[in-house]
Amino acid sequence: MQRRSTSIDNKRRRFQAIDVLRAIIDEPSDGDEGSETEDEVIQDICSTDEDTVSDAATDLSLATGAGPSTQNIGETEGQAEDSDTEPEGQAEDSDTETEGENAIDLLQVLKVPVNLAGKNKYKWSGSVPLRTRIPQRNKVTGQPGNKGEARDISSGILAWSLFFTDDLLNDIVTHTNAELVVQRRRYANDSQPDSDDDDDDAEEEVRPSFTRNVDIVELKALLGLYYLAGVLNMNGVTTYELFDKDCGVAYFQATMPQKRFTFLTNCIRFDDKGTRQEKRERDRLAPIRELFDKIVNTSQQLYTPSEYCTVNEQLLAFRGRCPFKMYIPSKPDKYGIKIMMMCDSNNYYMCNAEVYTGKGSTTAGVSATEYYSVQMTTPIHGTNRNCTFDNWFTSINTARKLYDDHAVTMVGTMKKNKAEIPPSFVELRGREKNSAMFAFSGVLTLLSYCPPKPKKKIVMLLSTMHRRGDTTETVRLPDMVQFYNETKCGVDTFDQLCHRYSVSRRMRRWPLTVFYGLLNAVGINFMILLKGSHADDKEAVPDRRTYLKTLAKALIKPQMEARLRYPKLSKNLRSLINGVLKIEPAERAQARQAGGRAERVGRCSFCDRSKDSKSKTKCCRCDKFICASHQHTICPDCADD
Fold first, then answer.
1. How far, in Å, CA of 45 to CA of 429, rounded?
2. Where does the pLDDT of residue 575 fall: very low under 50, low under 70, confident under 90, or very high at 90 and above?
3. Which of 45, 272, 435, 478 has the most crowded CB, counting CB atoms within 10 A?
4. Share of the chain above pLDDT 90, in %
5. DSSP 28
6. Burial of 264 (0-12, 13-18, 19+ CB in 10 A)
7. Is a pLDDT exceeding 70 seen at residue 213?
8. Which residues contact 255 (CB under 8 A, 6 or more apart)?
9. What's the whole-number mean pLDDT along residues 554-565?
10. Where do the PiggyBac transposable element-derived protein domain residues begin and end (predicted)?
11. Domain spanning 276-496 has what CATH number?
12. How many CA atoms lie within 13 A of 515 on its CB side?
C-alpha cells in the first residue's frame, strides 16, 4: 500500500532544498561532471505527483476535522488563496505553527522489536514485510448483486414471494389447521365441524365462525396485517385498539374480526406436532427449524454479497420460557433469542443466519467462536472476500483457518487476554495516546492501538487483509481501525432497520418470536432485491416505509375481496371494505345506470296510506318506492356514512 505525505512535509523539504542550494552557490564550483544545478536539486527533493499532494492534503484535513477541503478549520477559501502568496519566511512560520497544533491528532507509530513472543511463546516479528504485487487474497471472485430468479423481479410482492413461496405457505397452513382442529373443540358455538370434508358451497352460504380452518389467502392477509402494524409503529398496540370501530385502523377491521386475528396468531404452527418431540431431542430449534433454514437458503440463492461482509449477533426480544434464552446487557432488548448473522456491509442484506441454541449446539472439539465464524461465512468461502468480526469471534486459530482453508480474509477486534498477544502490546503504563504498534506473523497483522481519549485504553485488532501496518505518522487513524469502523456495523444496522418497522408482537411462544424475526429480515432483503433488479418495468418506490406499506396492501387485498362474497356480511362492514378497496357497490352502479326509476308505479313507503302517493322512483338499496317529498339528494361518500 503506497503511503502518502502531507503538504507540510513537502514545504519543509522545499525550504531544505533552498538552503542546500544557497550553500552550493556560495562555495566555489569544483568543476565535477556530477554536480547538480539548482533546478535539478529542487526537482529531486520536492518532486511529487498531483494525486499524492491532494491525497496528503485530504488526510491532513480529516485529521484536523476540517473535512476533505485543503483549508484549515475556520479558514475561508479567500484566506487559503492569500496564504499561498505569502513571503517564504511567513509561510514557513505558519506551517510550523500548524504542525504543532495538529501533532497531537496525528498517529504515532511506535518502534517494535524485531522478535516478539506471546505468553504462550507464539512468535511475532516487528519488521514490516516487503511490498510485493497484489496478493491472491485480494482478488475477489463473483459479481455482487441479484442472481437467479431475483434478476428480473418487477414488484415488491413478487420479490417477497421468492422467500415465502406458495409451497412454504401451504406447509404453514397444513400445520396451523391441525392445531385449529384441536383448539376448536374448546368452543361450543363452533358452526363448522371438525372433519376435513367440509362442504365448500356451505362456506359460501353461511358465514363461518372465527375458529374455521385457514387457507393461504387468509394466511397472507394475516402476515400483511403484521407488516401494516409495523409500518404504522403499532406492533405494541393491543389488538382491541387495532380493531376498535371508533379509533382503530380500517384495514384491520376490513380484513378479519379481532377474535379471528387473535385466534390465528395463537394457533399458527410451523412443524408437525406429532414428530416434534423426537426432533427436539436432537435439535432445540425443531418447532421452526425447517422454515428458518428455507428462508436463509433462499436468501443465499438470490443474492451475492459485496467484497466486505460483517458477522455479529442479533437479539430477538423475548422474556417467556425458552431453553436457550440469553441475557446480553449491551443489546437494546437485554433478554431474548440470540441469532448469529452475516450481513453485507454495504446494503445490510442478510446473507446467513443461525440461532444460537446454547451449549452442545456446535461440533464436538471445536470452540463456539471458531464454529460460528466458519459457519456464518459459508456463503463466501473460496471467494477471497473479507469479513469483519467483533472480539467474541476473533482469534488466531479462526483467522488462519478462514484464510488457509476457506480463502476468506478477516479484520476484527481481539480480546487483550489472548495468550498469543505479546505483553508489551497490552501494557498501558507509559503508552502515548493515539499511538500504534504493529507485529506480523505470516499472513497475520496484529495492531495495538491507544485512542486519543481522556481515559487511556488499548484496542487490539487482528487482520489477514492488511499486509503492512502504517509506517508513517501522517494520518490520524491506522488503516485497520478506519476499515474496521467502516465495515463493523453491518449486522447492527440491520437490527436497527428491523426495529424501525418491526412486526413483533408480545407473545409467550418463542417459535413465534423467531418467525417475527424472519418476517423482519425478509422485509429488508426483498427491498434490496427489488432495488437491484434489472427489470425495465419494475415499480419505483422511494423508501422502505412505502415498500412495506405496498407489500401489506398487496397481501391483504385478496382476503378483503373474498369477504365481500359472504352473502350475510353486514351492511356497515361491506361498505367499509368497499371504501378501503375503492369499489363502487353493485347496487349503486345498477341504480346509477337505471337512473333510480322503476318500470311500474308503486305507493310511497313513507306516506300515509290514505294519501295514496305513488311514484316510479325506488331506493337503490332497500328497493322501496319513494315519492318526491321524501327524496333527498346525497353523494356516494355521505351515503356510506
1. 40
2. confident
3. 478
4. 41
5. P
6. buried
7. yes
8. 221, 224, 225, 556, 559, 560, 563
9. 91
10. 161-525
11. 3.90.350
12. 25
Look up residue 570 and give its three cell numbers: 353486514
Tell me, what's the pLDDT at 10? 52
> What are 308's strand-pairing partners?
386
Residue pair 463/410 in contact (Cβ under 8 Å)? The answer is yes
The residue whose grid cell reads 485530504 is 58
What's the mean per-residue pLDDT of the chain? 78
Q: Higher model confidence: residue 201 or residue 558?
A: 558
Give the pLDDT score at 201.
Answer: 41
DSSP assigned state of 205: H
Taken as a whole, the chain contains a residue count of: 641
Say which DSSP state 418 is in.
-
Query: Terminal CA-to-CA distance of the chain, rounded, Å?
Result: 72
pLDDT tens figures, 135-162? 666 678 888 899 989 988 888 899 999 9
DSSP code at position 275: T
Mean pLDDT of 165-181: 94
| Amino acid identity, position 432 | E
Q: Considering the entire predicted model, what is its pTM? A: 0.74
CA angle 512-304-355, nearest 5°? 25
Q: Can you give the pLDDT at residue 70? A: 33
Residues 25, 38 contacting (CB under 8 angstroms)? yes
> Is 200 or 216 the better-scoring residue by pLDDT?
216
Residue type, 203: E
What are the CA-CA distances from residue 440 to residues 147, 264, 466, 467 (Å)?
Answer: 39, 59, 10, 8
Gap between the Cα atoms of 260 and 206, Å rounded: 16
Report the C-alpha dihedral over residues 331, 334, 337, 340, rounded to 10 degrees: 20
Q: What letter would DSSP give residue 379?
A: G
Taking the C-alpha atoms of residue 24 and residue 36, their distance in angstroms, rounded to an integer, is 9
Q: Cα 449 from chain centroid?
A: 29
126 neighbors 112 (Cβ within 8 angstroms): yes
Ramachandran class of 63: left when φ > 0, alpha when ψ lies in -120 to 50, beta otherwise? alpha
- Crossing angle for the helix pair 258-267 and 166-184, to the nearest 10 degrees: 100
Dist CA 343 CA 348 (whole Å): 5
145 beta partners: 304
Q: In this structure, is the dihedral angle defined by the CA atoms of residues 558, 561, 565 and 569, taken in order, positive or negative?
A: positive
Reduced to 3 states (helix: H, G, I; strand: E, B; else coil), residue 435 is: strand
CA 159 to chain CA centroid, nearest Å = 16
Per-residue pLDDT at 188: 60
pLDDT tens, position by position, 390-404: 999 999 999 999 999
Q: What pLDDT is stored for residue 431 in this prediction?
A: 86
Domain boundaries, the chain: 7-106, 149-273+509-563, 276-496, 584-640
**Residue 75 pLDDT class (50, 70, 90 cuts):** very low
d(CA 99, CA 229): 57
Residue 520: which of 539, 535, 500 has the closest Cα?
500
Contact 269, 175 (CB under 8 A): yes
